[in-house]
Amino acid sequence: MKFLIDAQLPPLLKKHLQAEGHDVIHTEDLPDKEFTTDNYLRKIADTQDRILITKDEDFVETCLLKNSPNKLLWITTGNIINIKLLELFNKNISQIVKGFENNRFIEMNNQNIFFHE
User: Fold this and answer.
1) Does the residue 39 lie in any domain?
2) d(Cα 83, Cα 116) in Å, to the nearest integer?
3) Cβ(111)–Cβ(80) under 8 Å?
């Protein structure tokens, strides 16, 4: 699966997902790094068929109203230490991958995953 990770999430998540065999870009890999605009992130996600992983609620609105990004994984854990975030992904990654077969918007918090069409 192809992912694009927004700046609020640690670059360590990129390495973790890559170790699982996924194709991953983090905003730190982009020319403007953490200053990359939301529009540019949506463009990359849409043109490269990547799932945007973010904590930014603004992307939920554009995903639902403008279909951009085409696929979104919204992380609603609040503040979370990196090890707990990685544990959460370990626990849920297979369900997330399967979920994107039929859904374009998934929300994940500390306890649950919500699938939105």
Assistant:
1) yes
2) 27
3) no
Contact 2, 49 (CB under 8 A): yes
116 assigned to some structural domain: no
> Cα separation of 32 and 54, whole Å?
17
Q: Residue 77: what residue type?
A: T
Q: Which helix (H) or strand (E) holds 43?
A: helix 38-47
Distance CA 55, CA 57 (A): 6
Residue 87, domain member (yes or no): yes
> Tens digit of pLDDT for each residue in 83-114?
999 999 999 999 999 999 999 999 999 999 99
- What are the tens digits of pLDDT across the range 26-73? 999 999 999 999 999 999 999 999 999 999 999 999 999 999 999 999
Q: Are strands 51-54 and 105-108 parallel, antiparallel or unpaired?
A: unpaired
Give the count of domains, the chain: 1
